[in-house]
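I'll show one example:
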Amino acid sequence: MYSLELESKALQNGKQSIEPLSMAEYTVGFCSRCQSQMKSLAYFFADDCWLVAASCPGCNTPNLLQYDRDWNWIKDMPLTLARRATRVSELPREQLEAVFTPAEIRDMLACEEGRPYVRQNLYRARAKFELFEEKFRFKIEL
C-alpha cells in the first residue's frame, strides 16, 4: 500500500521513498465515489511508469493513479495520506489508546526513551502501525 507524506509529498511504499518530480495541481480524472474531478497532489516516475497522487475535493478520497510511459491509464490504487513520521510521545494519548493496548503504549514509550521494554508488545504494536496511520494520518517512528 502506498502512502503520501503530506508535508514533503514523498511517496512511501514500505521502506522505499520516492520524491515528487512535480507538485503541480491539475484535474486528472473523476472520483469513482462521487464523480467529482480529482486534483493532482504530486507526480512520480517509478518502475517505468508514471504515478500521480490525487485527491477528490468532493469526498476527500485519495488515490494513486498509474500510467504507462505514454500516459495511458493503467489502474487506480488506494493511497493513504500521512503526516510526517512522529514520535509516540508527541501523539495524543486518546489516539494511541484507540489502537494500542496499555502494555503496547507503555513499551513503545520505553523503547523511544531507551528504557527496557517487552519485545513482544513492541512486535504487536508494530503490526498495528499501518492501521494507526490510516485512522489518524500519523506515521509512527520508533
Remarks:
- The mean pLDDT is 90.
- Residues 102-113 form the longest helix (12 residues).
- The longest strand covers residues 73-86.
- Residues 2-82 form one domain.
